[in-house]
Fold this sequence. Notes:
By secondary structure, the protein is an alpha+beta fold. The longest helix has 11 residues, at 133-143. The protein is globular and about 40 Å long. It has a six-stranded mixed beta sheet with strand order 2-5-4-3-1-6. The protein has helices at 21-27, 84-88, 105-110, 113-118, 133-143, and strands at residues 9-14, 30-34, 45-50, 56-68, 94-102, 128-130.
Amino acid sequence: MTHPTSSTEWSVHSNAKTYDSESAFRDHDDILWTETHVKIRLGDTVYLYGAAPRSAITHECVVLERGLPFERAAEYRRYWRGEDPVTERRGRTWMRFSLVHTFTPGERARLSIAHLKVAGLKAAPQGRIHLPPGVAALVRDVRGE
């Protein structure tokens, strides 16, 4: 599959207490993620930042679709931890992330919060942020690019 050209790199917070992105990506090449006021566009690269205890970048994805209705997310409900997080997101639109790379334990160690801060991240991502240039360079280095 040909992916759109990435124009912006983002870090998106992924909390395993709310959504099991690890299992979702083991079972699917694409997952759905809720949209917010932050305007992530088609073709943008999204790095999922796994909250504690991972505290590292875990996955690289590309955005393939936006504006999807809640009903399209039904296939992924089993990865949500309880109904409250799903209910909170019922009125939102969703975007489809296609998996590009799952970072290995060794790569995650190099993309831990300690290393991300040295590379220019101010704090652990709590939402959706543009990836600082130093962090983008670190990710490319870890990927061997």
